[in-house]
Design brief:
Blueprint (H helix, E strand, L loop, with lengths): L2 E8 L11 H15 L3 E8 L11 E6 L2 E6 L1 H5 L2 H11 L3 E4 L2 H10 L5 E5 L3 H12 L3 H16 L2 E4 L2 H13 L13 E3 L21 E5 L9 H14 L3 E6 L10 H11 L6 E5 L3 H10 L2 E4 L5 H5 L3 H9 L3 E4 L3 H8 L4 E3 L4 H13 L1 H18 L2 H4 L1 H8 L26 H11 L6
Parallel strand pairs: 1-2, 1-5, 2-4, 5-6, 6-7, 7-8, 9-10, 9-12, 10-11, 12-13, 13-14
Antiparallel strand pairs: 3-4
Helix pairs in contact: 4-6, 5-6, 8-14, 12-15
């Protein structure tokens, strides 16, 4: 029996929580299929920042058959090399798997000679750009890159959430010197799209045309959420149609994006339709489940940015799984896939008037929404479940191997290779020999 240690972010889907998020879903996405395939798994999950929760022990350990789950403090456990190495020594895994960029960076730091599957959940440098913009601080670009480059340098195999991101990651690996003679012909990067548990119940909406239409948003209001367009569209739709309601769970992301949701909530407080907005904030998973059953239209509104172009959206996949009809801006890869298949309503980004029209259209055509949702659920069952998306991960974990350039990486840190001030054929030849062939002057 192979032993795999996964480093991820908590809380995971099986834990009671208020702030269940995409990182927690990714950790369980990788863990559950491994357990079903007969692996022994230790899952170490860093608890995300949440000042609203009471203090917890640094380490909480639970065992369930072949699974050991460790919910640990970020600073006193997860960020400590000695803690993780001691856990590795105790478990003796055959390989490490990182689920999301920061856990992958930690896995790469402490792996030693163990093979590492490094998952990059979402597009880190697009996220860095968005945060630098919102907070007007380029330091975030350096911060994200310092984490991300540790993954690119050491990972043996990589997974990403979209085909666009797969291409971007291959480019980043090239810039790091990882596309070299030793890795030629290797498939270094695999797409594992965001998925949901195959046992997620499908709930038909069964709304009549004259009934109120509940537009639903769930999860974090992240850096790429266009809260202005979302609000303007909802208010315009409410102005034109008395059936329109808005329900929201989730909110600000503590320590990451504490601006987007407060801006949205402030707009809502000033709206003349304030009584038709229901902002629940971060609530229990049981309440989120209840809201998902009540929702008639799941909404996603993105800013035009590289994170949108290259990244993915957890809420869209969850809407697919649960039978919630979807209205989204056309930007992410998953939005375009569903658009081409006729399974979602879409609008261009930054077009509140068009978004309002689609909301009213949805209110007038419940039968169309039901058909779209049923088709999206069928696609989910074949292509976006945990099992369907992790076959390559399982195959690698059965025989975990290093990349061809393990232990002989090529250094492409360009800061070490200054170009001469005046470039002539002779000086360029001398420069090349000195810096790349390492010949003596």
């Amino acid at each position: 029996m192979n032993r795999i240690m996964i480093l991820g972010l908590g809380p995971i889907a099986t834990e009671p929580s208020v702030k269940f998020h995409g990182g927690g879903n990714r950790a369980w996405h990788f863990t559950k299929p491994l357990l079903e395939a007969g692996f022994e798994v230790t899952l170490i999950c860093m608890r995300i920042t949440d000042s609203t929760q009471p203090d917890q022990p640094d380490e909480i350990e639970r065992r369930d058959g072949e699974l050991t789950i460790l919910s640990v403090d970020e600073i006193r456990c997860f960020a400590r090399d000695d803690y993780l190495r001691e856990r590795i020594a105790r478990f003796q895994p055959d390989a490490l798997v990182g689920a999301c960029d920061y856990p992958s960076a930690r896995a790469c730091t402490v792996a030693g000679d163990l093979p590492v599957w490094a998952d990059i959940h979402g597009y880190p440098m697009g996220e860095a750009q968005a945060k630098a913009y919102h907070y007007q601080d380029s330091g975030y670009v350096h911060h994200f890159w310092n984490i991300h480059r540790a993954v690119l340098r050491r990972g043996d195999r990589f997974s990403v959430t979209s085909e666009r991101q797969r291409t971007a990651t291959i480019g980043e690996l090239g810039a790091m010197g990882r596309l070299n003679q030793y890795t030629f012909g290797e498939e270094l990067v695999t797409q594992i799209p965001i998925a949901w548990d195959p046992d997620t119940p499908f709930v038909p909406r069964q709304r009549r045309k004259e009934d109120p239409l509940i537009v639903f948003f769930c999860g974090g209001y992240n850096l790429w959420c266009d809260e202005e367009t979302l609000f303007l569209a909802l208010e315009k739709a409410m102005e034109q149609d008395s059936r329109i309601r808005f329900l929201s769970t989730g909110g600000a992301i503590e320590g990451h994006d504490e601006k987007t949701y407060p801006r949205f909530a402030a707009r809502v407080e000033q709206s003349r339709f304030r009584d038709r907005f229901d902002l629940r904030g971060w609530v229990s998973k049981a309440e989120v489940e209840q809201c998902l059953r009540q929702a008639h239209l799941g909404i996603n509104v993105d800013l035009p940015c590289y994170e949108t172009l290259i990244g993915a959206r957890n809420r869209i996949t969850e809407f697919m799984a649960r039978g919630v009809p979807i209205l989204t801006t056309l930007g992410t890869e998953i939005s375009q896939i569903l658009f081409y298949k006729g399974m979602v309503l879409t609008v261009p980004m930054k077009k509140p008037e068009a978004l309002a029209r689609e909301i009213i259209l949805a209110a007038n055509h419940p039968e169309k929404l039901e058909k779209m949702a049923a088709l999206a659920r069928q696609l989910f069952e074949t292509q976006y479940t945990y099992r369907a998306t992790t076959q390559e991960l399982l195959a690698w974990c059965r025989n975990p191997v290093h990349s061809g350039d393990f232990g002989r990486r090529i250094n492409l840190d360009y800061r070490d290779f200054p170009l001469p001030a005046a470039v002539s054929p002779d000086s360029l030849r001398t420069w090349f020999r000195r810096w790349f062939l390492r010949e003596s002057p």
